[in-house]
Amino acid sequence: MTYPLLHLLFLFHRLISPTLSLPPAPPVHCNSTANHCTISNAYGAWNDRSPCPVPSVVYPSTEEELLSAVASAQRLSLKVKVVSGYSHTIPKLVCPPPTGSLLISTAKYSSRVAVDSVRNTVTVDAGVGLRDVVDAAEAAGLSLPAAPYWEGVSIAGLISTGSHGSSWWGKGGAVHEYVVAMRLVVPAAADEGFAKVVEIDGNAPELFNGARVSMGLLGAISKVTLSLEPAFKRNVTYEYRSDDEFQDEFTEMTKQHEFFDIDWYPSQRLAVYRLDGRAPANASGDGVNDFIGFQANPTLTSMAVRFAEKALEESKNVKGKCAMAATVLSAKKLAANGLKNDDFIFSGYPVIGRQSKIQTSGSCLHSSQSNPLAMCSWDPRIKGLFFYETTAIFTASNFKNFVLDVKKLRDLNPQNFCGVDVYNGFLIRFIKASSAYLGQAEDSFVVDFNYYRADEPSTPRLNQDVWEEVEQMAFFKYGARPHWGKNRKVAFFGVQEKYHDQMNKFNALKKKLDPMGMFSSEWSDEILLGRKVGKKDGCALEGECICSEDRHCSPRNGYFCKSGLVYREAKVCRFLSSSAF
Ligand SMILES: Cc1cc2nc3c(=O)[nH]c(=O)nc-3n(C[C@H](O)[C@H](O)[C@H](O)COP(=O)(O)OP(=O)(O)OC[C@H]3O[C@@H](n4cnc5c(N)ncnc54)[C@H](O)[C@@H]3O)c2cc1C
Ligand SMILES: *[C@@H]1O[C@H](CO)[C@@H](O)[C@H](O)[C@H]1NC(C)=O
Ligand SMILES: *[C@@H]1O[C@H](CO)[C@@H](O)[C@H](O)[C@H]1NC(C)=O
Ligand SMILES: *[C@@H]1O[C@H](CO)[C@@H](O)[C@H](O)[C@H]1NC(C)=O
Residue limits of the FAD-binding PCMH-type domain (predicted)? Predict the structure, then answer.
């Protein structure tokens, strides 16, 4: 694959702007012949690698049905997991135990959205999608200030993992800060009918702080009530700057721009500032944020890009990765990352549009007709993009030093960072202190970065050592906390200690609401407890362990367990050319 061809593919994609697309497949797959179901996440990451069998699944559509599902599970001593119709979480939080368990899907519990324009709130069924919530709010003249950037998530699912956008203003960027009430279904004694609804609001702080971010471990959320504000517009400009001093500027920038974030591309020495704040509701402008990464891609483009990336990986072509990163970046710059001044094109900054049209996006989710012309670029039905996503949450005092360390590592060889810059570089966002036990106790920085994941778990990746060193720097040197909805297992090691008292309070509440551990599984325990599993050959390649011996890497392919280059305590799998070993 030559770079001009790649470039062409991107242009091709921009020109044809497909309107037909195929929405993602439902996450629960059943084979009626074999009488057997499995669940996967939206990336299909669990399918072949370590499938997640589902002994039984129900689709309640009302609170009564949800209640009776939990009651029958209690009667039959079944374990329960709840999943949305989207299943967009990376860790296996929604996998039920392989036997004696019930999966509750909220895919059909998604029809009620009630806006209260007197109290400025919206109350929704757990499975309602984010897009429907923000659209309904706006139709009533209200806005939800915070949202994750991806609209393909349910309300209960997104708050359960602490999902967020970016802001240090008001209640901040995390959506669970806007929750004012919830209804949670928990197991109960026989004389209470085996299950009951617990009503939760700020008057019962223990429940309120525990349940808002609870990864489905306390019970099944039935309804969520969010507080809203009078409708407003957003005013967005992307500014391209050198990355020389951004670590000294962001605190000030967050004060000036309510929804500020930074996309940092280390290999390009570039920091893209999102200058983004409110505009009055009557400001002119009907812009849309149709983020380029969440647009439907022609199947062919996704496959070609994956094919190219794979070829560069296999030939260890760092320069090629850098060319790819430069191409992707110039395409994004040209397209303003997908911002449009109207429904169709970008014609210049600032882009001003309604909050619901700017705060979150995901046009690849929607189809106008069932036509497999285009889909989300990571859709597992095609051999499209496949990547890891590491998301680390830092306290203010640690974040700057983390950035300086990453810069040191970058300066040793900037090209080593092209692999993350092919995706979105390091996306830096801001969330405010929260009283949720599994939320952040102080104002925090969140960093996301994506990188290539091989089709085969045993295949080492180009610059694997660099991503591992950054990952270990974040989570161990600087004590960052993992986003509950993303990351590889290694990010969760030691997580109980990082949350100290908060975790004790959460565990105590779980004992009260779910004394028999109905909502726990081996999978979710691995995340919540940060449990380390036995070290197998090659375990470090997929982030299942930190290597301590070469066999945890891939000696056969020339990858050995070595110390970090900047963070010496890190243990990473590094490729040594044959002359070196
Ligand atoms: C492309 C993409 C972009 C993303 N962007 C962002 C972002 O900008 N910011 C961010 O913070 N995150 C982001 N995420 C992560 C995403 O917001 C979370 O993974 C979210 O939890 C997914 O919601 P879901 O509805 O798919 O839930 P699921 O994956 O189905 O479930 C998530 C968790 O919620 C629990 N749960 C779901 N429904 C219920 C219920 N009714 N009762 C009890 N528990 C329940 C599940 O058991 C599980 O523990 C992104 C993910 C993707 C794939
Ligand atoms: C369903 O199960 C049957 C029997 O095990 C198997 O032959 C068939 O290939 C399966 N179908 C799919 C689509 O996996
Ligand atoms: C949009 O923001 C810019 C600063 O980034 C400001 O100069 C401009 O006045 C704003 N426009 C509106 C309508 O708020
Ligand atoms: C918006 O409304 C304010 C006050 O209601 C008014 O002063 C202003 O002129 C209006 N702006 C526009 C662009 O209509």
Answer: 50-231
| CA-to-CA separations, 547 to 85, 525, 528, 532, 544, in angstroms, rounded | 36, 22, 22, 12, 9
Any idea which ligand is nearest the CA of 35?
A: 2
**Ligand 1 contact via 215 beta carbon (within 6 Å):** yes
Q: Which residues lie closer than 8 Å to 268 by C-beta, 6 or more apart?
A: 325, 326, 329, 421, 425
Hey, what domains does the chain have and what are their CATH numbers? 22-105 (3.30.43), 113-231 (3.30.465.10), 233-453 (3.40.462)
Cα(185) to centroid(ligand 1), Å: 19
| Ligand closest to the CA atom of residue 279 | 3
Q: Are 227 and 350 in contact (CB under 8 A)?
A: no
Q: 180-215 burial, b if ≥16 CB within 10 A, otherwise e?
A: bbbbbbbbbeeeeebbbbbebeeeeeebbbbbbbbb
Strand partners, 154: 129
Give the list of residues 6+ apart from residue 62 with CB closer than 8 angstroms, or none.
109
Interval 526-562: pLDDT, tens: 999 998 888 999 999 999 999 999 999 999 999 999 9
Return d(Cα 200, Cα 184) in angstroms, integer: 7
**Distance, CA 231 to ligand 4 centroid (Å)?**
14
* Ligand 4 lining (C-beta closer than 6 Å): 280, 282-284
- Look at residues 302, 293, 309 and name the one whose alpha carbon lies nearest to residue 418: 309
Would you say the CB of residue 140 lies under 6 angstroms from ligand 3?
no
* Ligand sitting nearest the alpha carbon of 258: 3
Other beta carbons within 10 Å of 577: 8
Distance CA 276, CA 358 (A): 10
| pTM of structure | 0.94
Mutation choice for ligand 1 from 57, 150, 365, CB with most ligand atoms inside 8 A: 150
For ligand 2, the distance from its centroid to the CA atom of residue 520, given in whole angstroms, is 30
User: What whole-number distance in Å separates Cα of residue 405 and Cα of residue 385?
Assistant: 29
232 CA to centre of ligand 4 in angstroms: 13
With CA atoms as reference, report the closest residue to 557 among 483, 470, 489, 456. Answer: 456
Q: What is the pLDDT of residues 234-270, one digit of tens each?
A: 999 999 999 999 999 989 999 999 999 999 999 999 9
Instruction: Report residue 243: phi and psi, to 5°.
Output: -90, 10
Query: For residue 339, which phi and psi values (nearest 5 degrees)?
Result: -70, 140
Rounded to whole angstroms, how far apart are CA atoms 213 and 199?
16
* Secondary structure (3-state) at 388: strand
